Every structure is written in C-alpha cells, then in structure tokens.
Amino acid sequence: MATDQNKFQAIISHCKEYGFVFQSSEIYDGLSAVYDYGQNGAQLKKNIRDYWWKSMTQMHDNIVGIDAAIFMHPTTWKASGHVDGFSDPMIDNKDSKKRYRVDHLIEAHAETLDAAAGEELIAKMNALLAADDLAGLKALIEAYKIKCAVSGTVNWTDVRQFNLMFSTQLGSVTDEASEIYLRPETAQGIFVNFLNVQKTGRMKIPFGIAQIGKAFRNEIVARQFIFRMREFEQMEMQFFVRPGTQKEWFQYWKEERMKWHLSLGADPAKYKFHEHEKLAFYADAAEDIEFEFPIGFKEVEGIHSRTDHDLGRHQEFSKKKMQYFDTEINQNYIPYVIETSIGLDRMFLLTVCNAYEEEDLTKDGKEDSRVVMRFPAKLAPTKLAIFPLTKKDGLPEIAKELMDICKPHFHTFYEEKDAIGKRYRRQDAIGTPFCVTIDHQTKEDNTVTIRYRDSMEQERIPLDKVKELVLNKINE
Ligand code: GAP
Which residue ranges does the record assign to the Aminoacyl-transfer RNA synthetases class-II family profile domain (predicted)? Predict the structure, then answer.
C-alpha cells in the first residue's frame, strides 16, 4: 500500500495554482466533493473527451454516439435496479454524528496496520461485502476497535444501506409522482434509446452506442480530490452482441481499452486489470482497469459483461420489445451487452498525475529546478507558445502573424513579458510542448528558435515550418 501523499498534495496545489481545477464556489468555502475546471483544466478535459470520442466513434465503423438527457423517466431507475439497489453500506458514529462509507472506514484503518495485517483486514472486509453481511461488517469494525476520526470513540450505529441517487422535483407540484432523479450513470440513456438508434441507424449486431455526459452520485465520503466526486462525467459505450458471444467480446474490449490507455504513453507497469470480487447479480464478468496514482492503484475504468439484464428489464417495465432480428441466424433475441465505462474526471486525474514531474536541474553547483507537466502533445491544453524576444523592432508583429497562421489549427499562446527563461518555465508548468522565440535573426533569415518542453533542447527551424511541425506532433 505504498502511497505518496506529499506528491498527491503537490499535484492538487499545482492544479489550483495553474488554473486546472478549483474547488466549486470557493468564495463561499467550497462545496464538498464538487469541483470546477479552470482555463487549462477545461481545455485538457476537452482534449481527453475528444480523444475518447474519436477513438470510439470515428475509428469504429460500428459504433455511433448519442447525447441523452440527464433527466429520465423515473421508471428507468426502477427498471435498472438503481431505486432498490444503488446503495453503499454506511455507518454513523453516535458521538460525532459523522457518517462513513464502511469500506472507506476499514480501508483507512488497514493503512495504519503493517502490510500483512492490513491485507488480512481488507480480505475479511471483501468477503463480508461480497456476502452483503452488514452485521458482520459492524462486528469487524468493533473487533478492530476502529475509531471515528472526529470523536475518537467506537460508539457506532448498525451498518445500513444508503441510496446514492440525488432526487429532485419535476414541475411545481411537490408530490411523489413528480420526483425524478439526476442520472447516476449515463448507461441507461443508451439502453432506453437502443431501438431508436438501431432502427434509425440501421445498425447490425455487433454494434455499439457511445455517450459522454454528467452523472451524479451522493457519495457520502467523497475524498481524494477529483477521484470521487458528487457531480462527474462518464464516457460510456454499450456494445450489443449476439447471446453466447459475450465472452469473446468481453476479452476484445478489455484488450482494446488497455490499448487506448497505453496509446497515451504511460508506463505499462502503472496499469493492471482487477477482477471484481463481487459480481453484480446480472453480470457474468467484470474487470476494472486500475492505474497507479500517487495514492496507490485505483480504478479508472470498468469493463462489464451485463448480459441481457438492462434491455430485458426495460422490456419488462416499458412493455416495448427490446429485440433484434438477426438475419444471419434467422432469430429474434434481446442482445447481450459489453460495457466500457470510464470516468472523464478520473482520466483527467490520471493524466495530470502521470504528467507531473518536479525536475532537479542543478548543474555545476548551481541549484535549479522546474515543475513540468509532460502531457502527450495531443492532450496538452496549449500546443504552442510564441514569444517575441523583445517588445519592439517589429518582433511582436512577426510573432502575431505566426499566431494567426497557427490559431485555426491548434491552441496557441502569446506572451511578451519577462525573460525568455521565465516564460519557458510558465509553459512547462502547464505542459505546453513547444515554445517558439522570434528574435532579430528571424528578421534576417526567417528562422525561429523552437524549444522542446521535455528535453529543453532548442533548435533553429524555418518560420514557415512551425505550423507543420506542431501539427505532425499532435497527430502522432
Ligand atoms: N455504467 C457503469 C458504471 O457506472 P461504475 O463502476 O459505477 O460503473 C464507472 O462507474 C466509472 O465512472 C468508474 O470507473 C470511475 O472512473 C467513474 N466514477 C464512478 N463514480 C465516480 C465518482 N463518484 N467520481 C468520479 N468518477 C466516478
């Protein structure tokens, strides 16, 4: 359970200082587990979102994208099982009145034990969670004398299940009939549109429907920055297959999704698959892709074989046939589904953690250092910074002309203040892969100095080659 809390804290501070992530409504002391993305964060998040969307839809002939509403008919959530079953076991401390998610309380205690004892405690907890043994979980908390961090006492209530869905009222009449939910996953928007898309798109099985959008969960113990939020974004894809072929497709999507992650250049040793200890009753396989954050290996994405459960339940509740006629085998059936589900915010956190580096540049006894965000060029919020060496002699004009040429193709940034070294460091801190300096030599021979973020090397290239060079790198 080796973690690096200091590094994680440094990343959180860096995200705030450089306009990536802010606490929501910070001037009012913030809102717990809700965050806003700043100028650099919003662009980075958009680039991740676009990269996923392109690789899922444009690069797969048989996957189309939709954008369903956040509000859905309340029966959706009865059919999906969320009204009855979307809950976490919680426990309250009677003295502090603080509520804990049982797994988080026990995990935090396990981290205070030595490695073997910690693993033993987690194994016991997993067995009890898998058996839905709430009394057993309370007994475990008591046996280990786990204390509330606020009151310091072991005075606990029983363990109970709490539903994680947010509800609100539709219309002005506050009766139960108008109660609706903020969707806790985007997947159901895909299932209820299965027939619409299949028919209007004349889709043939196997095919997929992808969607990106907000989801909301009333996470009781929301911790660890944007890792667990109450309002977050999911990028999900449901892949509809012929019953009996789901195992092959599950394997296919596991490999395909891992390839996607590795295409972004992280060390493969930082990724692993984690098989679910407890399968949802309708699933016949489920694995998570985990990444090694500074706070340990954690889930980023789930790949789930959901059988025909969701479409079957919507057929039952809506009385509409959710069937597909397979002309190859002359049969009608409810398709089976393989789901890939990744949190956009979690992928953002992964990208930031993987990119962040405090680099020691001390040379010949002269102390120096920098913080550099080594984002893959295709994800970097700004691709190119353009600096005139001085504010005069016509250099800003040349710089702005270059900016006008590049702007329609990728994000550029212009700056003429401070020494060039300082300007480079500011761009390193937000992960800009290329900086170009316009100097007096530019006026003579139409060349510029390009400086590469990662190696800090500089070379002279023709001014009219800058756009092409950057475009090639971001399309790699
Ligand atoms: N449709 C399946 C589904 O929602 P999930 O494992 O509950 O499955 C999928 O969620 C992904 O959504 C997770 O792997 C994670 O990346 C992201 N996610 C879930 N809850 C989250 C939260 N509270 N904050 C941020 N991301 C979350």
Answer: 165-388
